[in-house]
Amino acid sequence: MMRRRELLVTIGTGLAMVVLPVGGAAIANHVKLEGTPVAPPLPNPVPASSQTIHADQITAQQVRADAIYANKIDADNIQGQIHQSKDVKVGDTRGEIKAPEVTASVIYADEISANWVIANNVYVRDVRRR
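and the corresponding structure tokens:
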């Protein structure tokens, strides 16, 4: 009985984590979420994750990583050391990511569109700050 209860609590918590953020979403104007306050970035941009993301397009309110390699970044705010160069190589990118927040140790992307881009180092060809 105890294991079943623990399993039901775990499943319920997991579902709540997935459903609640989606239910609170508002109509997006570009990537800004109307009615949703934008929290300032945390001082330490290094994420806890050791994950590497490869994506063609990332659209998010906040993109965080230790290092970001991108061909194009369109953002309201960029926090971190920006290294702009035509020699940026993003390698094999695939797929599209749309989420309120994208966090990884290293991100390789063809294009990033976000309100906040936060990284220790941002290696990018073209930057557009709104």
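(Above: one complete record from the training split.) Residues 2-23 form the longest helix (22 residues).
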